[in-house]
ATP-binding protein
Amino acid sequence: MGTVTPASSVEAGEVVWLRTDEALASAGRRAAAELARRVGLGQDRSGDLALAVTEAATNLQRHSVDGALALRVTARGDQADIEMLALDSGPGIAELSVALRDGSSTAGTLGVGLGAIRRLADTFAIHSLPGRGTGLYASFAAPAVPDAPSVPAPVEIAGLTRPISGETQCGDTWAARGQQGETGDQAASLLVMMCDGLGHGPLAARAGDEARLAFRESRAGDPAGVLADIHKRLRSTRGAAVAVARVDIAARRVTLCGAGNIAALVMAETGRQTLVSTPGIVGHNVGRPHTYEAALPRGAALVMHSDGLRSRWQPGDFPGLLAVTPALIAGQLLWQAGTHRDDAAVVVVKVPS
């Protein structure tokens, strides 16, 4: 998850995906230790992270039909976070308030329980769907960079990517960057890109990498202009489906221009409003671009995803999901609506009330 300032950007990074098997806890601890070393988390906090990973992994093994841990490092303002997502298909948790009591643990775990994970983490969120599964999010912050500028940002954004089964590189990717307002003190709008490189594997990943570079370097301020710059950059690749959205924070409106099979929608508790992309392959054949617009009401979120997620999911399938952090929204959508037969990516934007 990240917040966006006028001069900052966030984009997809490496995600360590670990599926449930007998070695999940030990593999999770090793991956967490490497990430902790990379960001200088410190011995005590590294121990807290290891404990949280072990408890989450043990719960996945004992209570899920299928599950996974996702670990990664993300930038947040002047510091880095290690984020953990535990996602499963299982019975869900009927009484979250009971499960979150510190020290309450299911049989056979370490006895620290979900409540202790919440206490140990700097940020914690959980969402459960009875009969379908549970998603848990926890982040552990590394020490802040001394004297780094801290600019409050009014937007929260998080995305998640997962390669097709059997591949290590993902051709689906996302990125976001802030646009400065007249006062110069905070982001007045946000540009967000979702890209699905055609096919999968290294060539698809190269298209995604080039799309992120073009998005980062583009000086255009509108979605159609940014899409045109990405189109030029992808001519030497196999091409991609790409959509670019602009979130006007003060007006709470979204404009989008895209080509290819990218889903973009405003998700609210009562339903969803779709923003349409036109047919085409960015980098090869893109027709005349069309820009679509929608309101972003309070309590709603902008969701963009590749066709690695099924398109027919509805907000009503996920009661209470909009109340949690964007990282967990992205995780639950990818896990519950995703397919392992294709690369997958999803990004979620929330503008606090």
About this structure: The helical segments are 24-39, 43-63, 96-99, 113-120, 202-217, 223-233, 326-337. Residues 106-111, 147-152 have pLDDT under 50 and may be disordered.
